[in-house]
Specification:
Length: about 260
């Protein structure tokens, strides 16, 4: 998928060569062209059917219903859960024995996680970014520390009065020019009349022009080096996008 300013185009997604994640299982895939970089795959690839040249093993299971993950350069894995499980809705996993399985699993994240739509977990420029439904947070990563003990910083807050609604996920992406990209999803499915039909009743007639597109249904761009921002601190980058569950910036052609 490729987003350019105020437009959206679709392309074939690239083959994921290294990582695939299921709600209850975390797998590491690896290319046989670099066998020394990864532990041996499990017999029968732990139940996955894979193309020739790929292997898999279960890193951890039963950690909770996962939404996003990020992998640090040292192999540490950070997972964003749909719901908080115990303490926090972030999970940090580390393999200390080299067998590919996580033997340290730590839940962390002392922040409010509303509803079940939150996602977003990304490592960028030495920071771990993660999102609740309406807030983007970050912690500075510390070399050697699985769970950083640095202060949790608020990067962006969705301060709209409507509160939680459909399509409110806040994944983040970064370009090479110092900008961060965050979606603000549409409150309804197809610009339904939210004032007279609360919740945007499915099947009801959409409004044209669509008032949701003023502050929703798109991706906004923000300066990466600022904290405590709201939507007003950014600029509309792409519009006409109801819901963004995940996105990334393609450094090869400089497009979202």
């Amino acid at each position: 998928m490729k987003f350019s300013r105020n437009t959206m185009k679709f392309y074939n997604l690239p083959l994921i060569k290294f990582l695939i994640f299921f709600p209850l299982f975390c797998y590491i895939l690896y290319s046989c062209s670099h066998p020394s970089d990864f532990p041996p795959s499990a017999p029968n690839n732990d139940g996955l059917t894979l193309p020739e040249g790929f292997g898999a093993l279960v890193v951890a299971d039963s950690i909770g219903k996962a939404r996003h993950l990020a992998v640090n350069d040292n192999g540490d894995i950070y997972v964003k859960l749909r719901y908080a499980k115990g303490t926090g809705s972030n999970v940090a996993l580390r393999d200390t024995t080299g067998d590919g399985k996580a033997d340290i699993i730590t839940y962390f994240g002392d922040y409010k996680d509303e509803g079940s739509l939150a996602n977003g977990m990304r490592i960028h420029d030495g920071y771990l970014y993660y999102s609740a439904a309406r807030v983007v947070y970050r912690n500075k990563l510390v070399p050697g520390q699985l769970v950083p003990d640095t202060p949790m910083e608020v990067v962006l807050t969705d301060d709209h009065e409507h509160g939680i609604h459909w399509h409110i996920t806040k994944p983040v992406a970064f370009d090479e020019e110092g900008y961060m990209y965050v979606p603000f999803g549409s409150p309804s499915n197809a610009c339904q009349d939210m004032a007279n039909k609360p919740g945007g009743i499915p099947g009801s007639t959409g409004l044209d022009p669509c008032p949701e597109l003023i502050e929703h249904g798109g991706v906004w761009r923000f300066k990466m080096d600022q904290l405590n921002m709201t939507q007003k601190d950014g600029e509309l980058y792409a519009t006409g996008i109801r819901s963004v569950v995940a996105m990334d910036y393609n450094q090869e052609d400089n497009n979202l």
